[in-house]
Structure formats: C-alpha cells, structure tokens
Design brief:
This protein is of the alpha+beta class. Among the domains are: 46 residues, Ubiquitin-associated (UBA) domain (Helicase, Ruva Protein, domain 3, Orthogonal Bundle), CATH 1.10.8.10; 41 residues, GTP Cyclohydrolase I, Chain A, domain 1 (Orthogonal Bundle), CATH 1.10.286.20. A three-stranded antiparallel β-sheet has the order 1-2-5. A hairpin with a 5-residue loop joins β6 and β7. α1 crosses α2, α1 packs across α3 and α3 packs across α7. The chain is elongated.
C-alpha cells in the first residue's frame, strides 16, 4: 500500500524516529500507526540488547524545577557519541526524563522509566529513540528533591555537560530565585564540596591539617608558628571549598554568604541554602 507523508509525519511526531524508519514501519504494518509504533519500539529494544556492551561516554545533564519552585529534578542520560547527544531527538528525550523524574517524585530509575509523558512512558520513548539513533542510550542517574518551605534554583552549563541544583529554605521572590540561579552557576564553576564548613567531614579536615603540618615542617618553619600557619591554610581551604565562603564568581569583592546577606539587608527577606547537587557528565 502507499504510505502518505502525513502518516510518516504523524508516526515521527509520536516516536521521534527517523523518516525512513517510520516509512518502513508503516509499510510493515500496512499503515497501522499503533502497529508501526510497536515495530519501532521492538527495534529499539532489540538494539539495546545488541549494543549492551557498548560504552556510553557522551550524553546530557538536564534539570527541571516545578512551577511552585518547591520541587526539582536533575538527571543524566548517556549515549555513545557526541553527534547523537547534540541531536534534537536526544535532547528532547533528556528533557522528558527530567520532567518525568519531577512527575514521579522519585530517585528510582525504574519508576521514572514507567512514568508517562504524554501518551508514552519514558521506557517507550527510550526504545523509540534507540530505534531512531541506532545507539545504546541509557538513563544513568536521576535525583528528585523537595523543600516544602523553600525553593530551588538551577544552572545547566553550555552543552549540557554540567548542571546543578541549589535549594533554599525561605520565601521565594523573583530576586531570590535569580540569586539562587546565580549560586547554582557558582556551584558548577567552583565545585564546592559542602554548603557550609560544618558539613565538611572531620576526617577530611584532619587529613588536610596533617598535610599542611608536614609541608610547614619540611619548609623548616619555627615550631612556635607551625600551628598558626596550619590554621591559616585550613581557613583558606574552607574559603576555596565551602560554597558559602567561596569568592562569588560574579563579584570578587564578596563571598557567596555576603551576597545572600546583601539581599537580606536590601529587602528584609532571607533564605538559607540547604540543598546542593552537581552532576558532571560521566
């Protein structure tokens, strides 16, 4: 039978598969859209088995925040090549995974796979995508966060290779949201290990002090000033690795905590950062 261009476009819109694959699936199903969709999904599932041993070092990091700003999701989807990761179909699928994670309110990949976006589950969309791009594609990790009495900010670096979520307790305003987005950018740029110094594990600090002490002794510094030098180096470690104490990337004259304090002084409103997640591809 003759397959019309409108049928092919309809199937493509439903599955994201390539035009040629859509035409073939429609021909094999005698023009039945539902059967054609099933054919494409089976093709994707079969491809997944065939390419199970392939490495997936490319992909995308995506984040999404709920309309009320109280919930957020960040995800990583991987594929085999940079060419596919930059494609519209892969990027759209990655956005769908972030949306599904938010809808599912779950950190479980299997739960996300069973979540529907539109008419299709994420698993069905994944099978269709693999049929279209002919590469192993997988959801590597998902993270869902919620703050009942707060809000979230996020930042995705150009190319979707890095992304972060930052959550805060406090009243949401447009200005506060903008500040949190800028702090999320800070997280991506400076990769802090903790929000505040109290969150840094004691064993890490002890190890740093041990290293500093050895360094100072090897430099032949007098015993009576060793403790002071180690203390100063430890303070610098906090300033470089703790989010609130880091030099703010958009204003080197203040730390992140000063930026937040400045907002409080100007508006009379305040917020406290309580959540921080950073994803780097791979």
């Amino acid at each position: 039978m003759t397959i019309s261009i409108d049928q092919i476009k309809e199937l493509r819109n439903k599955t994201g598969a390539g035009m040629a694959d859509c035409k073939k699936a429609l021909e094999d199903s005698d023009g039945n859209i539902e059967k054609a969709i099933e054919i494409l999904r089976k093709k994707g599932a079969a491809l997944a088995t065939k390419r199970a041993d392939k490495s997936t070092n490319e992909g995308a990091i995506k984040s999404k925040i709920s309309d009320d700003k109280k919930s957020a999701a960040i995800i990583e989807v991987n594929c085999e090549t940079d060419f596919v990761s930059k494609g519209e179909a892969f990027q759209e699928f990655s956005d769908n995974v972030a949306e599904a994670t938010l809808l599912a309110k779950s950190n479980d990949i299997n739960t996300v796979l069973e979540t529907k976006i539109g008419e299709l589950t994420i698993k069905e969309r994944l099978d269709s995508l693999m049929a279209a791009v002919a590469e192993k594609t997988e959801i590597k990790r998902v993270c869902y966060l919620h703050i009942e009495d707060g809000f979230f900010g996020d930042y995705n670096h150009f190319g979707s290779k890095l992304g972060s979520l930052v959550g805060a307790k406090g009243e949401y305003t447009e200005e506060a949201g903008d500040i949190l987005n800028k702090i999320a950018m800070q997280v991506v740029a400076m990769n802090p290990i903790a929000i505040k110094r109290e969150d840094v594990p004691a064993e890490i600090i002890e190890k740093e002090k041990e290293i500093y002490t050895s360094q100072v002794k090897n430099e032949g510094k007098p015993e009576n000033i060793i403790d002071k030098i180690v203390q100063n180096k430890t303070e610098k470690y906090f300033q470089e690795n703790v989010l609130l104490e880091q030099e703010f990337i958009q204003d080197s004259k203040m730390a992140v905590m000063d930026f937040i304090a400045d907002y409080k002084e100007k508006t009379g409103k305040s917020f406290e950062i309580t959540e921080m997640v950073i994803y780097q591809l791979g």
